[in-house]
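Work Package 3 (structural annotation) set out to generate three-dimensional models for the target panel prioritized at the project kickoff. During this period the team completed the workflow that converts sequence records into discrete structure tokens, so that structures can be stored uniformly alongside our sequence database. As a representative example, we reproduce one entry of 260 residues exactly as it appears in the project archive.
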Amino acid sequence: IRVLVPLVVCAGVGRVLDLWYWAVPLHDSPPLFWSIFAELIYCTLYPALLPTLRNKGVGTLLAGSWMVAAGLIWLSPGRDEMLHGFGNSKTWIIGLPCWLTGVWLAQTISRPAPSRSANSAWFWRFAVLAAAVLPHKADVNLAIYYGWSPGPLPFAMLVAPVCAFWLQSEMRTQGGALADLPSAIGSAGKAAYSIYLVHMPALQIAAWTGAEGIRFIVVALVATAAVATLFYHLVELTSCRFAAKIASSMSRRDRSVQAS
């Protein structure tokens, strides 16, 4: 429900206003919908993956999914494309390690932080900085001197594990500090969640104003923030509350059945 409601709203608006980035048919979805379809697949697969997650741990499944995704990218002739260019049949496989990383982070941050967590955080900060710069330099040099470039996605798969450990170290080290952040920052972060769906219409709104150069960038940023906040409160938050209410009702029903 949490995923389907935004999808239905966007597809409906896209059909009415003839917006290509929110268009149908769904079998060849536009770039903005690939992550929603991937999440629908993950939610469907989760019950089947749960026994493996409990018995083998998420680490084993994460490593296996990473190797499959990396192999799919390297063996695909269009590996220099954006992720959505692989189509709905493949993007969910490539995105699966990202989803499992979220599961892994949710499990690991609940454990006590090691005594050297602060030093570990600084190590991974420098590591992720190097991982962000060096692959780009290597890609450019390969293209210049050898006329060949693997493209951004293969390098992204190499950088991904470093980013995962960096996020883990930050969440363990800054967990208490993050809880003390002003509520306005937390609210802004939640509202920004919808940017993945609304950045294209926000850019279109900015284009309608006729602004150019720096003015266009400013208008685009303001429009993105406004549209994302509106969409989050009207659609995303509403669907989340509705899904939580249904889950709570089902949980109460299960408890009553067990009690009887």
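The mean pLDDT is 76.
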